Amino acid sequence: MIATCLVPAAQCVGTYQGLVQIRNPANYYGNIPANLKVTIVVT
């Protein structure tokens, strides 16, 4: 996974949370059911 800051670095400092969905390449409309919770900490 890659996270990119689109504003000056000082404005990116903080903790961000979200979910990552994994696509199932064998089924265009299908996702693998389990979402992965991620936390990104920028210091």
Overview of this structure, please?
By secondary structure, the chain is mostly beta strands. The chain has one domain. Helices cover 0% and strands 51% of the residues. A two-stranded antiparallel sheet has the order 1-2. A hairpin with a 7-residue loop joins β1 and β2. It is elongated.
Query: What is the number of domains?
Result: 1
End-to-end separation: 18 Å
Strand order of the largest sheet: 1-2
Which parts are unreliable, with pLDDT below 50 for 5 consecutive residues or more? none
| Count of individual helical segments | 0
Instruction: Report the sheet with the most strands, covering strand number, pairing sense and barrel closure.
Output: 2 strands, antiparallel
Q: Percent of residues in beta strands?
A: over 45%
- Number of E strands: 2
The gyration radius over C-alpha positions equals: 14 Å
Molecular shape = elongated
Averaged pLDDT, please?
83
The SSE order reads EE
Give a concise summary:
The protein has 43 residues and is mostly beta strands. Helices cover 0% and strands 51% of the residues.
Question: Could you outline the blueprint of secondary structure elements for this entry?
Answer:
Elements: E1 14-23, E2 31-42
Antiparallel strand pairs: 1-2
Task: Give the tags.
two-stranded antiparallel ribbon; about 45 residues; elongated; mainly beta; about 0% helix; 2 strands
